[in-house]
Amino acid sequence: MQEIYRHIWQCLTAGASPGQSPFTMWQLATNGADGVPQLRTIVLRAADEARNTLTFHTDMRSVKVAELRADPRLSMLAADLVKLQQIRLEGRAEICPDEAERSAIWNSARPHTLILYQAPLSPGTPLPHSPQATAVSTGRHDGYDNFCVVRATLSKIDYLDISPAGHQRAVFTRSDNHWQGKRVAP
Predict the structure, then answer these.
(1) pLDDT value at 6 more than 60
(2) Who's near 162: CB < 8 A, 6+ residues apart?
(3) Burial degree of 73 (CB within 10 A; 0-12, 13-18, 19+)
(4) What is the C-alpha to C-alpha distance for residues 30 and 36, in angstroms, rounded to an integer?
(5) How many C-beta atoms lie closer than 10 Å to residue 57's C-beta?
């Protein structure tokens, strides 16, 4: 079980590192305000095994932030379609409350990533029919006011390997600050 656990964190660390990995892009599920589960893609930005957390960035104005504030439970899924491995995660989200930490993350991000937060309209806002219609942007114009850091503290990891050599599944749950794993049928 320890070998599988180490492999999972290697995948998470690789996903959060510069460059592309099958575990860079994740599907994030939240509970929608209307009770319907909501699913979208996020980019993994940090994986911290010691703190048991994963971090991603999003627009502060996005619906997912409101959903996570109302109900911090989340699920995430990513898969390596070449190696036929899947990792599913469950946990609780926290919107980073530390302004110094948020600022440090902003200052270390790549400029082309930060452009996303300069949009004057909130994500999902219907676009105006008239080209003359404009939205008014408030606050800082570099996008920082719209930048949100979300940290997920993990409580469950479900690993599935359906490669010809693998065909195994393991579920890890966290209690008393320790992970306990068990094999289950794939």
Answers:
(1) yes
(2) 84, 85, 86, 186
(3) middle
(4) 9
(5) 23
Q: In order of start, what are the domains of the chain with their CATH numbers?
A: 2-120+142-184 (2.30.110.10)
Residue 58 contacts residue 122 (beta carbons within 8 Å):
no
- The DSSP annotation for 151-167 comes to EEEEEEEEEEE-STTT-
Average pLDDT value over all residues in the chain = 92
What DSSP string describes 81-145? TTTTEEEEEEEEEEE---HHHHHHHHHHS-HHHHGGGG-SSPTTPPPPSSTT--PPP-S-TTSGG
The identity of residue 127, as a single letter, is: L
Token pair for residue 147? 């930048």
pLDDT in tens, 10-23: 999 999 999 889 99
Q: How far apart are CA 4 and CA 134, in angstroms?
A: 52
Residue 36: strand, helix, or coil: coil
Q: Are 44 and 12 in contact (CB under 8 A)?
A: yes
pLDDT for residue 86: 98
d(CA 5, CA 3): 5
